[in-house]
Structure of Isotrichodermin C-15 hydroxylase:
Amino acid sequence: MHLKYGPVVRIAPDELSFADPTAFKEIYGHQVGKSAGRLEFTKDPHFYQVVKIQPPSILSAEKDLHSLLRRSLAPGFSDRSLRQQEGIISGHIDKLMQRLREKSSSGQPLDMADWFSWVTLDIIGDLALGEPLGCVETGTKEGTWGRYVFVSPFANALLVGFRYLNVGFLAIPVLVWVVVNITKKAKMLQNALGRRLNSEERPDLVEGLMQKQRAGGIDAGVVETTSATVLVAGTETTATLLSGMTYLLLMNPDALERVTWEVRTSFKSEEEIDLISTQRLEYMLACLSEALRIYPPVSPGLPRIVPKGGAQICGEMVPEGTILSVGHYAVYHHPDYWTAPSEFHPERFLGDSKFANDKLEALQPFSIGPRDCIGRNLAYAEMRLILARILFSFDMRIAPESVGWLDGQKAYTFWEKPDLNVYLSLRCK
């Protein structure tokens, strides 16, 4: 769309889509410099709070409540807390590696998209709720918590679309299904958070929220919706990137060979692979950046509303009330900002002169500004640890039916991923 019509496209009577990296800072960034004192670009409620019966979460909360929630959650997502949580994270990856060894011995391909979803849910569930969810152990998304998190991205997109079109009555069948499921899920989450609230303090993701709730500073309903947001966002985005990364490496054998060599020559055993040591894997980190560019877990723009008085975006005055967004996928695949944008070249993030004109600052997969992704450090930690351990221990080969896995995928905020069938075998060298 942007390649045909230009960097700014009106996609609805009152909505503009941008494919210009400058717009990231101007729409989502902190209010500093020329923007100091400007009113915040608020989130579009049609997109962020589809079902109004729910209390606001950290995603949909207005400025003051969002600041309170963010301050409460920040200690749990800090580098210090992450180091304290490393044992929990590694324990779940240990279980994943054990199950992959067991399952791969049959010689049948494994759906790695599923396995990445299960391990990331186990990790985020333990860190947020303080109890094991057992998804890797059962090896199915049909379990109670699997049904909680793994809902169709299409259903949510359908509700959003009905609200934008002001034909909400057409959404009643879908809405009834959503409300029934929300009620069931709310009860599950209430029980889990009740147990967490009455347990000992631990350096996990929600301890700050728990402390605020105990002191009466945050409503229980807001704690529930924010915890649910942490569960879903912390699972889906990381699992999606790991799936995309695996596919892109398998379809680019030179890159797979190089990153495998880097991992296997950097460590003598799996036990040496940890949060600190994986930060030194330069090529693997470049592969992660390139996978985030080609297959961003959240591909569309995240809509904001221009505040009173209007605002200047990319040199153009935009009137108040206009909905704006910057399309991640559009920016990350635009030839004005990237050399060979559809091709997988991790070298572009390592200073290769062939990519000297690439605008690396255009890559903002975790967004920027006061509402950027609070789970960025955790996501990178999980991705580094899981990918490094799989590359260290297994040789991988894509199953014929999964060649072209990226082709034709639909994105409704999150991608609707098909099976990613991969043959795993214990490394032969």
